[in-house]
Structure formats: structure tokens, C-alpha cells
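Title: [Solved] Phenylalanine--tRNA ligase beta subunit 3D structure

Original question kept below for reference.
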Amino acid sequence: MPTVGVKRDLLFKALGKVYSDDEFQNLCFAFGLELDDITNEKEMISKEQGVEESTGASNEIIYKIDIPANRYDLLCLEGIVNGLQIFLEKIPAPRYKAIVPKSPSKMEKIIVTNTPKNIRPFVVGAVLRGVELTQESYTSFIDLQDKLHQNICRKRSLVSVGTHDLDTIKGPFTYDAKPPNDIKFVPLNQDKEFTGLGVMELYSNHAQLKQYLPIIRDSPIYPVVYDSNGTILSLPPIINSDHSKITLNTKNIFIEATATDLTKAKVVLDTIVCAFSQYCKEKYTVEAVEVIYEETKETFQYPELKYRINEIDSNDAVNYIGIKCTSDKVAELLSKMCLQTKVLENNKLQVEIPPTRHDVIHACDIYEDIAIAWGYNNIEKTIPKTSTVGKEFPLNKLTDHLRNELAQSGFTEALTFSLCSKEDISEKLGWSFDSIPAVTISNPKTLEFQVARTCLLSGLLKTLGANKKMPLPLKLFEVSDVVIKDENTECGAKNERRLCAVYSNKSAGFEIIHGLLDRVMQLLEIPWSLDKKNGYYLLAEDDPTYFPQRCAKIMLNGNVIGKMGVLHPDVIHKFDLHLPCSALEITIEPFL
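Solution (posted by the thread starter after getting help):
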């Protein structure tokens, strides 16, 4: 959870009331927040820098408030104050709107060339007109950007925000990408001009900015935003230009956000302009910016500031939460959480979701806000109508019994990674990846964790490879879940509990694995099937993972539950093994 530090006196002044520490802590809890710590600037600096005293730091009390990770609208003083005042019913929820200048020629434009599409393809923008900033609101404005960069922007890898004094630059603006040596500008708070490569060198040891350099450093071109005079505004996602920096005297703020994720960029832009449009000459009003893509000729206007409508059933909501409440009261509770609600017929509620609440995605998010506004401590504790005895989940209970018995059979349990590379479940086992129903990770951190495993065998073979120096024979097993694509499920995939065992020695030891299968079936009281109808039996199978004519399907009541056999030499070699192996893998869910 991100933590926001706000000055206590400034917060109470904005709220229009002075609270004791306990009173404010209770208010935070009622609103779904947590007052994490009460400190001052000197203590904060001494903790961070490890010094006893901090010269120049004040003794002003600072509240450190824990904010839910999905509540981007509460990551600054302005957002917290608005949320609390609406919750306390002191003010109505603001109505945000994006306006378009009467003359199309006066609308600010960002022209996107074809060049940035392979490095940072998207850009959004907005203008705050007639802004009146104080030192406190200026600091809060910068802090919000930093909080968003660390949170939803994933350290600027998804989105990076640039803010500029509009009166120092001239549109239309261009979002382009150029070779590093062709980019020359004076970075923020510097007095010397640098090239793109010079900027990388300048900030290579910077405490904060050095972590963002790898995002574009190795690219042959760097993204850049400049105005109609060729003046560079920013080198995203690294640094803005000193020429267009905002100050306390800035009256018109131009905001641009470049991104690899357009949805995240829209959320970030909405969050910033909604929080600080209250300082505009016309409160809660933002001037739209037109984004034009040269290649496709498409045009878009940002910010969107959309109000979404969601319809829920009041009876469902109160039943899920466990309270007794009328539809009118539920609508009132939601309005306290910035979700303006109208009561319709048949206990239906029409909930309007403002552009500040991008965290509301599903009906359950609305139910959560009802529970917060009602008060978790106010939910009546009741005794269940039916007396029951807690018991272990049947599949986990079966798993634990099998684990004990397999260990007593002389096999050692292994616990392998749930994620693996594509080759581990396909090429190394003799299969084509296209034929594997694997769930692929969209943005894997490393090549070792690209997909969710579809079998346990590859993990055990990698474990064997890492323990080749151990005394023979090597006997490993694992009882765990695999993930398989399934279009019939809500999320498009399902978990399946499997048992896998591997035996490695100077001989393949197929009889050991076969004996283990028989022992498992004996424990489960599954008889050998003589009529191939009831019980378990084996059928010959051709599988590229196993040696030809040394593989069998394991059948249970006429259905395939797994395979067993002697592994193919190619599979053994690809897992860096040198001794024959036999293996068994079955699903255990049919035994419940």
C-alpha cells in the first residue's frame, strides 16, 4: 500500500475542522484508510538519512496515511480532502468536465509521428487554465506525479508524465523519436545543454532517475516531445526540459503523458487533472487536447473524463454484506463514497462512477464501498443459521494422504516452480508449443518464467538435473497443481491437481514406477480392471516424451487419467541428464 505524507495543520485547515490524533485515526478507518504514523520532517529525514539532526527541517506534524493501492485519487492531499469532505457530507461530489475551445484553431494539439510506435507508442494530454498555485499545492502536484510513477505507472515503464508551463512554449506539439545525438536540450534544473546520450551519462549515478534509464537507454532512438519552434519539452520517461518547467507563477499547465499502455495513461491523466482542476479559474474544468496520429490519420481528444453507469440490485448488495438497509439508504451510502446513485424500480440502483474512481470495475467494488460507508464495525455479528464443523478441503486432504504414502514408498518430495519456459513444457518434451494448452504470461520478467506449467514432469526433470551428484537411485515425486486453458471457465483457464513421480538409475526402472502406480491404486481402493470397464488398466500409447513402445495410458473407468513409461533419450539429454529415467503423471481429481 502506498503511503502519503500530509502536513497535519494544512490537512485540518482544508477539512475545516481540528481533530485529535485518535479522532482523525477513527475518521480514516471509517473511510477505509489507515493512519500509519505521526511524525515530523526532522524525524522523517533522520530515519531516511540515518542522521540524528536535520538542519533546516521543521517540527511540523506530518500524518502518514496508508492508501489502498487501487485508489489513485487519494494519493495527494487534494484527493484525500475531497474524499473525506464528501464522505462527511460537507460538500457534494464535484462534476468534472473537459471543454473544447470555441475556435478549433485554439485547441492545443499533439502530432504523433510514425517513429515512436516501436518504443513508446501512445501519448495523451490536457491543459489546466488559470491555475493559482501555492507552495503547498505545487509540492502536492509534484508528489502526486511521483506517487503515480511508482504505483500504476510501474516506475515509468508503462506511463511517464510531463508537466509544462504552457506560456513558455507554443503548439502544436510533436511527439517523435530521434537518435540520441540529435536530441539536445537543457534538462530540468540544469544550466548546460546535453544530448540524449549526455543525459544518460548525467543521471547514471542519480539517486532517483538512474532506475529509469534502462527503459530507453539501449534503444537506437529516444522518444521526445517538442513544440512548433523545435524547443524540446521532455525526454520521456527520463526528464523534462528546464525551459518549460512549472513554477509558482505558472498560470496555464500543459500535461503530456507518454505510454506503452494507453488505458493506464488515461487513468493517470484523469487522476491528475481531477485532483488539481480545483485550482483552475473555472473549478473542475479541464481543457481538452487533440492527439493526431500521422500514420493512421486518427484523432483523439483527451482527457475523456467519462462518467460510467452501473446498475446493481440493492437486495443483493445488503445480503452479501450482511446488513438490513433500504434502497434509499444504500443510495445515500454510495453517494458518500463519491458514487452518485439513483433508486430505480424493483430495488434496482443506478450507480454513476466518476472519472476519479477507476478502481470500480465490478459490482463487488460497489458492494465494498457500501460496506465501508456503513462501517465494518457496525455490521451485526450473527450466529450461522446452520451449525457446521470445519473440515479440510477434500482435494487437499487426498493430496496430503498421497504425499505421506509416496514418501513412505521411498520417494523424496520436490516442490517446483509453477511458472516455466515455453521449451520446458514443449520442445524439451518432444512437443510443439502450439499443441500445448498453456497460459502464457504477457510480460514475463525472464525467459525462465514465460508460461504456467501444464505438467509436473518438466519441473521434476530439472530438479534431477540439479541433483545429479546425489547417490543413486534418484526417486522424486510432486503432488501439485498445473494450469490448463479451458474456454468453459470464467477466466479461460483451470487448475488441475496432479501426481508425478520420476525414477532415475543405471537402468530405467519401469517396474518401480509401475509398482508405485499399483500402490497408489491400492491405497485408493481402485481394483485392477479385468473387463476394462470398472477399475484401472493400461493401454499402449505413442508419446514423443517416452521411448517408443515403452509408454502406456493409465485408464480409470474408461477415461484417461495420465501416462507412464520410460523417457525418450532425447528428453533426457535436453534436461542435461545422463541416466535412464521412467516417469508417471496422473490427475488425482477423479478419485474424489
